[in-house]
Amino acid sequence: MKLWRYVTDIDWPICANGVDMVFAGDSPYYWYDDDTLLNRERRDFIYVPNEDIKTYRLPKSVTNIGNSSFYDYSSLTQIEIPDGVTPIGDSAFRGCSSLTKIEIPESLAFIFQ
């Protein structure tokens, strides 16, 4: 599946059942680098296309973790959330059965189910 230049909204989890994502071209809506998909302003964390990661440190620019961002990442054991993040979206860590350590900043105000 290709992320075309003018896709304006992405609903996760869309990569179930082995669908590979290919991010192509410069998007005015999204920013992709270092295996991390963010909104263009780099504030909203959307996705990391590697379900086999064990540890992950969110970029310091992130202030929002989107819905289902790490959905079914069963290998994820540890995540570091930067200061400034205020909400964690619905089902952001659902299915993360190996997750044993989350560094939560004082700025966190909401965790949606």
Folded structure, characterized:
The chain is mostly beta strands and 113 residues long. It has one domain: Leucine-rich repeat, LRR (right-handed beta-alpha superhelix) (Alpha-Beta Horseshoe). The chain contains no helices and eleven strands. The chain has strands at 2-3, 22-23, 30-33, 36-39, 44-47, 55-57, 64-65, 78-80, 87-88, 101-103, 110-111. The strands form four sheets. It has a four-stranded mixed beta sheet, with no helix packed on it. Strands 6-8-10 form a three-stranded parallel beta sheet, with no helix packed on it. The chain is globular. The model is unreliable at 15-19 (pLDDT under 50).
Concise description?
The chain has 113 residues and is an all-beta fold.
Count of helical stretches: 0
Compute the number of structural domains: 1
CATH class: Alpha Beta
CATH superfamily: Ribonuclease Inhibitor
> Helix/strand-derived class?
mainly beta
- Please write the string of helix (H) and strand (E) elements: EEEEEEEEEEE
The largest sheet, given as strand count, sense and whether it forms a barrel, is: 4 strands, mixed
What is the strand tally? 11
Low-confidence stretches: 15-19
Strand order of the largest sheet: 3-4-5-7
Topology:
Elements: E1 2-3, E2 22-23, E3 30-33, E4 36-39, E5 44-47, E6 55-57, E7 64-65, E8 78-80, E9 87-88, E10 101-103, E11 110-111
Parallel strand pairs: 1-2, 5-7, 6-8, 8-10, 9-11
Antiparallel strand pairs: 3-4, 4-5
